[in-house]
Amino acid sequence: MKTAEFEQFLKFAEDHLSDKSDPEKIQTFISWCKKNGIEEVILRLSSENKGGLGKNFFLDFTTSRIIVSKKKFMRKFVDVGYTAGMAPFSYTLLSKNLKLSDLRKGSVINPEDILGKDRSNFFIPYSEIQEVIIRKGLESIVTNMLGSIITRNFLTVKTSSKKYDYGLPVNKNGTFEQIHYWLGVIMPVKVLAR
Known about the structure:
The protein is an alpha+beta fold. It is globular. The mean pLDDT is about 80. The N and C termini lie far apart (about 35 Å). The protein has one domain (about 5-194): PH-domain like, CATH 2.30.29. The chain has seven helices and ten strands.
């Protein structure tokens, strides 16, 4: 989505969003994008294993699919993620203080650019997803003098032919509750919490 297209949505939204809750705003945005043939990234989660030294991916939840893209080597170490996982336009829509002019051009992501030419990148259409499960990170608890700290949660996406498992570091993606909440808002299938 280009900034001009988002401005069109904001003009449409002036009359339609003032009395809506945050989830209703995002769902209205998704519906508008689909109606206008625009695919937009709504949420981005960062996935990593082995403390960031193993396989690391971005999970981009768009209006129609999940795009799984491998992080470039340097991105493994300097990736700060999105605020609570929300992509720039979604975050702007929910923010009471942020203006469209505050968005940096580099922060806006085109779903087709995410797929790029890397053969390890792929996507999962929502129509193929049978189940989405998010689990609290019991396997990755670090215990210290102050108690236990959960360092990552886990996401499983099941289709009829395959199961995908991802570790979601808490410090880059927000809390378990935030992730579960927003996935439940944008996914067309039920997101189970375990």
